[in-house]
Specification:
Elements (H helix, E strand, L loop, with lengths): L18 E3 L6 E3 H21 L1 H21 L10 E4 L6 H13 L5 E3 L3 E3 L2 E3 L4 E4 L5 H8 L26 H4 L4 E4 L9 E3 L4 H11 E4 L2 E4 L4 H12 L3 E4 L3 E3 L14 E3 L5 E4 L6 H12 L4 E4 L1 H5 L9 E4 L4 H6 L15 H13 L3 E5 L2 H8 L4 E3 L14 E7 L12 E6 L5 E3 L7 E7 L6 E3 L12 E7 L4 E5 L13 H11 L2
Parallel strand pairs: 15-16, 15-17, 17-18, 18-26
Antiparallel strand pairs: 1-2, 3-7, 3-8, 4-7, 4-9, 5-6, 10-11, 11-13, 12-13, 12-14, 19-22, 20-21, 20-23, 20-24, 23-25, 25-26
Amino acid sequence: MEHPDEPLPAPTDIRSRTEYPRPWLGGTWKLRDIVDYELIATFALLEAAADRRETLLREIYEVNRATIADGAQGTLAVGPKAFAAILSADQHDPNEVIELVDKLLIAGIEVHRATKEFKQDGETYAAGSYVIPFDQVFARYAKDILEKQTYPEVRRAPNAPAEAPYDVSAWSLGMQFGVKTVFAKTALPKDLALERVSTTSAYATEVYVRKVSFNGSRESVGYSGAEDAKHINRLLKRGMKVNIGKYSIDYAGTIDGKLASSNTGKLARAPRIAMYQSWTANMDEGWTRWVLEHYEFPYTTLHNADVKAGKLHDRFDAIILPDQSARSIAEGQDFSSIVPEYRGGLGDAGWEALSEFGQAGGTLIAMGEACNYLIDKMPLPVKDIKRTTNREQHFAPGTVVNLQIDTTHPLGRGMPAETWGYYINSPFFQLTEGFSSQHVSVAARYPNTAVNASGWLRGEEYMLGRAAVVAVEMNPGKVVLFGIRPQHRAQTHAMLPMLFNALYWSAE
């Protein structure tokens, strides 16, 4: 047998060798064997498909025929009848309706748009509302991703605790996009005027035009969601002055703040954003980068050495700490197998630089577990209640939750008073005694009843009335704690404006 420490051949050697050591198992393996296995499996699949092609086609046809028939009868699943899903034109953010329709189209789902006002189950829907009839091939899929998920209580014994789901228990896409979805309980009207939707580009333009109003040298646009941030960022990039409240763009190059809303932030330039990227693999950091790039927020990546160099406020208004444990941020990884430049975390020097950044007027934005890094390091009047519970008391494998938003708060601009977020065992807060120099406010909280909107949640009672997003103003610096991550996997469109507002707030 080969020596176990002998390195495997470089990839360039594969074509010139047919046998390789496998000391962990003993003996050798042959490249020819691996290729043969792949060929055998491929030919077996092709032969089975060819031999049973009529059976396979008939079975696929039968499944699709049954789906269309059941959809026409409203009996796709056990429970209340559902003949279609309706996305009303009357939504807080019409852009997100279009975003949701785009995702449905990509999945092959047939979507239609009402050309006239219509009534369904006693409710009136305006022209422009979207209808997803269930007499179509992908009806089951459409219903599944749009409806509320109710995970069954599974117990090994009558008095045993409920078994937690293995993985994510909710994915209600309408909720994650902030779009209210209604299911038709009776058949759609025979005279319902619908047009098949193949692309939404024209509708997106229509929404933007409908939001715009002009007053002299000022253009005001309804600021109601994430997509509007793209327009704000493009205007800031062009050197325009922007009031974020409604939002308003002043072509004269000045900001006088004369808006109906008192909750208005004035921006003369784009926020200077940095994001910490540790040498420990971090999925949340990658998703956050994707969100910033997609919505056109320029940013700079900071590694440990960049943070430790200090003088951060000379370059940045906001620094984002993605979801990562406090210990991992502070210490990183310190194995002998890791080259020196990738070892460790921020350490004392990194924290001193971040603390100096806040004292100079910078905004520290922490998400998920990273909140506890700031709670532990700073005298913040905030306590993470999640850390006081164990898995048997509180656990969420992936749950859509109800949230209440303070729309008068700088972080709540453009948000509805009630929305949904995605929760996976992240911090939720209780406010404690603070210093007089600190102004603490709750921008988002869980309701006093019914936190769970879709999926499975153990220990809901611990979350009732607790804070989900907290801001601490320390004159001049600010800390924003996103216990619930607003950009979870770039999918929680309903909450994205809160993250964007934190970035804009840092530059006001």
